[in-house]
Amino acid sequence: MTITSTNGLSGCVLALGALCTSGTSTAVADDGPPLHQVVYTVTTDHPVGVGIYYRDMDPPTWADYSHDPYRYSPRDDIQLEPGAPWVHQAVLADPDRWAMVTVTAVGPPTGAAITLRCKMTVDGVDVDHGEGPRGALCSMRNW
């Protein structure tokens, strides 16, 4: 590239501008909706076996979800212990519609009074929490 100028400074500015723009490109197409960091946390005050369902991805449509909800809501079966929370991070485009975690005690009730708790944050902000003796649900919408 040859830049001719009677003023050396303007030629330098033009050359610098050409160099800065020649190697960069700007995405013009829309890359879709912004994604949100969703964190699900489940805790207990006594050891207990639990089943945890959580929304891990946005279904493309409500029909897709209703025809196969478990495709979008995996289940973890674990032994939950006090002081050792179950934590899962998901990335969702529409957490107002799809973010959800539910925990349910499995097996017959024990003699101990158990409290299961869930908490959900979106982009670092607490958005819901729940608790109960045999289960809990955290969601931004009513199911």
Describe the structure in your own words.
Keywords: Signal. Residues 1-29 form the signal peptide. InterPro entries: UCP021591. This is Secreted protein. There is one protein chain. The chain has 143 residues and is α+β, with helices and mostly antiparallel strands. The protein has one domain (36-139): Immunoglobulin-like, CATH 2.60.40. The chain is 20% helix and 38% strand. The protein contains 4 helices and 8 strands. A 4-stranded antiparallel beta sheet has the order 4-1-6-7, with no helix packed on it. A 4-stranded antiparallel beta sheet has the order 3-2-5-8. A hairpin with a 2-residue loop joins strand 6 (116-122) and strand 7 (125-132). The relative contact order is 0.21. Mean pLDDT is 82; it is low at 1-29.
What is the number of strand segments? 8
Name of the CATH architecture: Sandwich
On the 0-100 scale, what is the average pLDDT? 82
Please state the structural category. alpha+beta
Number of domains: 1
Signal peptide: 1-29
Protein name: Secreted protein
Keywords: Signal
